[in-house]
């Protein structure tokens, strides 16, 4: 197993840049490099909001920083990270655990800000969840999260209450197998037709990736494991007319996305809403959310999305509403 | 699914419940120990399996290396975990598809989900080939 280089302790900062150093630094270890800033706390998303956080592994180059991140993890997670073969895989695995811990820590549930103190467990179906401390009088928030990563992007979605699944993929990801052969084997007939109707092979490849991420996001949101929802038992329908828009101008709701399960084909499963984003021009991010409220006649309110790019404890950047995050499917307002 | 075995590689394997293979755990960013599976009492999933022939393991390793674009000299053995080699959920499905084509078998989604290592794949292949 390759070990990441040990951090070289740096002398403590003598003058704190923050007005109230005690509250900001109370959870930091003495060895934190002077270059690290404490995690900026963030308000929990409201019931209607979705927060998307992401890290670009290529932008995280500092070995001491990666060592710091390792220190945030319990031994079991460190072992898991080191079990991956090669630096790149270890790095994205490390960043995935770091992102989920630091992101949840920012919400300062019950006043805590220490990513190291978070515990995770699985629900009855195996989906990862936070295991909150059961102190007297403490009612854990219904915080939901889901993570996804490729070697070039690590992302975490957070909501309050609404089940969430997210999946990320490089736009240019190519399947080794022929797309239609693959789709015939694993997708539904409608989806095969949808792909087959696209004459341009490049566009067809991209549409395949979009479908794949949407299907993954749906199953992850369901939280019951992939075997309970094999990919050929549900169809993702993409409507080019903005059928699901709700009082939005057309340019904000490019297409409606819905899921239809094969055992009830006439009923579009209205419990779930989708967003498909193009991130940094290079990745697709599919988000699937449990619908909380409908806006009458079964229409959904758009997904209210806040997207932030982060290098945990180094910098955060609000990117929603910029061209780093383009809505290409579903009904989304970004702010 | 139990098979008596004279092979020196007989192993008593405790199989996880059908559910997401650890490969997709990579995709979700969760550690292997948090892989997305339904927990099931170990007793009901115990399985005595005869380890697959080395040639089968070799063929599987070759298909895996091809899918993941690993250099030919990358050490891939029966113990190698797909996820640790860098396979995400799409890779896994593609690998299974490649195995289906190579061995002329059909792998049910449930069985595909329980493949975590090269050995798992090879063992499953030999079971399915035997059943034909």
UniProtKB/TrEMBL annotation, chain A:
Residue span(s) of domain 4'-phosphopantetheinyl transferase: 164-247
GO cellular component, one term: cytosol
Span of domain 4'-phosphopantetheinyl transferase N-terminal: 67-155
GO biological process: lysine biosynthetic process via aminoadipic acid
UniProt-listed Enzyme Commission number(s): 2.7.8.7
UniProt keyword annotations, A-Z: Transferase
Protein name: holo-[acyl-carrier-protein] synthase
One GO molecular-function entry: magnesium ion binding
Family matches, as PANTHER family: 4'-PHOSPHOPANTETHEINYL TRANSFERASE SUPERFAMILY-RELATED, PHOSPHOPANTETHEINE TRANSFERASE
Lineage: superkingdom: Eukaryota
InterPro entries, alphabetized: 4-PPantetheinyl_Trfase_dom, 4-PPantetheinyl_Trfase_dom_sf, AASDHPPT_N, P-Pant_transferase_sf
TrEMBL record, chain B:
GO molecular function, one term: phosphopantetheine binding
Occurrences of domain Carrier (ranges): 54-129
Cellular component aspect of the GO annotation: chloroplast
Transmembrane helix among keywords: no
Record key words, sorted: Chloroplast, Fatty acid biosynthesis, Fatty acid metabolism, Lipid biosynthesis, Lipid metabolism, Phosphopantetheine, Phosphoprotein, Plastid, Transit peptide
UniProt subcellular location: Plastid, Chloroplast
Chain's role: Carrier of the growing fatty acid chain in fatty acid biosynthesis.
Family per similarity comment: Belongs to the acyl carrier protein (ACP) family.
Protein name listed in UniProt: Acyl carrier protein
Provenance organism: Linum tenue
């Amino acid at each position: 197993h390759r070990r990441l280089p040990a951090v070289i302790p740096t002398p403590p900062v003598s003058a704190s840049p923050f007005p109230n150093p005690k509250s900001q630094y109370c959870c930091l270890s003495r060895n934190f490099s002077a270059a690290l800033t404490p995690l900026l706390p963030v308000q929990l998303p409201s019931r209607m909001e979705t927060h998307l956080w992401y890290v670009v592994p290529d932008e995280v180059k500092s070995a001491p920083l990666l060592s710091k991140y390792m220190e945030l993890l319990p031994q079991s997670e460190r072992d898991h990270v080191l079990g991956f073969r090669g630096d790149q895989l270890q790095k994205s695995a490390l960043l995935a655990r770091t992102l989920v811990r630091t992101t949840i820590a920012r919400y300062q549930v019950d006043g805590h800000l220490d990513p190291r103190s978070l515990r995770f467990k699985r629900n009855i179906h195996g989906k990862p969840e936070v295991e909150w401390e059961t102190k007297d009088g403490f009612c854990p928030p219904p915080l939901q999260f889901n993570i996804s990563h490729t070697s070039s992007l690590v992302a975490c979605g957070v909501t309050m209450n609404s089940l969430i699944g997210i999946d990320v993929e490089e736009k240019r990801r190519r399947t080794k197998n022929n797309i239609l052969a693959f789709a015939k084997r694993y997708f539904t007939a409608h989806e095969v037709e949808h792909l087959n109707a696209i004459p341009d092979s490049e566009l067809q490849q991209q549409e395949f990736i979009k479908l794949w991420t949407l299907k993954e996001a749906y199953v992850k949101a369901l939280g019951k494991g992939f075997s309970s929802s094999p990919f050929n038992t549900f169809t993702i329908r993409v409507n080019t007319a903005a059928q699901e828009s709700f009082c939005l101008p057309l340019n904000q709701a490019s297409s409606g996305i819905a899921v239809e399960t094969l055992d009830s084909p006439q009923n579009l499963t209205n419990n779930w809403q989708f967003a498909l984003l193009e991130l940094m021009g290079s990745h697709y991010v599919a988000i699937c959310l449990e619908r909380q409220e409908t806006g009458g006649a079964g229409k959904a309110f758009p997904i209210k999305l806040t997207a932030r790019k982060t290098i945990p404890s180094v910098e955060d950047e609000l990117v929603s509403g910029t061209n780093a995050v383009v809505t290409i499917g579903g009904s989304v307002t970004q702010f | 699914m139990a098979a008596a075995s004279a092979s020196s590689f007989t192993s008593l394997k405790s199989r996880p419940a059908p559910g997401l293979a650890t490969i997709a755990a990579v995709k979700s960013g969760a550690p292997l120990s948090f892989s997305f599976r339904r927990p099931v009492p170990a007793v009901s999933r115990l399985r005595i399996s005869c380890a697959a022939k080395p040639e089968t393991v070799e063929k599987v390793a070759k298909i895996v290396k091809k899918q993941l674009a690993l250099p030919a000299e990358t050490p891939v053995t029966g113990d190698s975990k797909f996820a640790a080699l860098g396979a995400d959920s799409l890779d896994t499905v593609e690998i299974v598809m490649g195995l289906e084509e190579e061995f002329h078998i059909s792998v049910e989604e449930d069985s595909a989900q329980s493949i975590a290592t090269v050995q798992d794949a090879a063992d499953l292949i030999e079971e399915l080939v035997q059943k034909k």
